[in-house]
Write a sequence for this structure.
């Protein structure tokens, strides 16, 4: 596990929205988006998942996530499905945790990220958070980066 601070540029993505329990809906979303991309013969640069609701504060059936991709052909991709939409992920300062998730321990990885953010003297901004997948997870383990928008504690106290 490694953590770093990174200033990111805005990133345009194509997203597929899923609603419901993350453990069920996120894998389904990946399958649906993958099938759509295969049908259109589009190549993918990065696979991402954006989580919009906190599972401890939102009913499982109301949890929202976006399964997203970047691609060199993104400007050519025409969303022909109501669940597909384009987003621009804001640039700015992010804490980035690179870790290997084994046995589905995604929550533990997120807890490690938030503990590390506090230790670095930063706080989440309440903005964007997402996972970037660096492998396909076929062996049951996931090499991922978790990105969370942050700011130094001193700025948060002034705001």
């Amino acid at each position: 596990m490694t953590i770093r601070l990174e200033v990111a540029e805005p990133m345009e993505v194509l997203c597929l929205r899923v609603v419901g329990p993350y453990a069920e809906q996120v894998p389904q979303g990946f399958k649906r988006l993958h099938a759509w991309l295969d049908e259109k013969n589009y190549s993918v640069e990065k696979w991402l998942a954006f989580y919009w609701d906190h599972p401890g504060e939102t009913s499982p059936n109301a949890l929202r996530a976006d399964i997203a991709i970047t691609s060199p052909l993104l400007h050519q991709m025409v969303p022909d499905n109501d669940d597909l939409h384009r987003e621009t992920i804001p640039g700015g300062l992010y804490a980035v945790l690179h870790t290997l998730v084994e046995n589905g321990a995604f929550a533990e990885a997120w807890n490690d990220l938030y503990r590390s953010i506090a230790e670095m003297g930063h706080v989440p901004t309440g903005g964007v958070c997402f996972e970037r997948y660096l492998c396909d997870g076929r062996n049951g383990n996931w090499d991922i980066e978790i990105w969370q928008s942050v700011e130094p504690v001193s700025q948060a106290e002034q705001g």
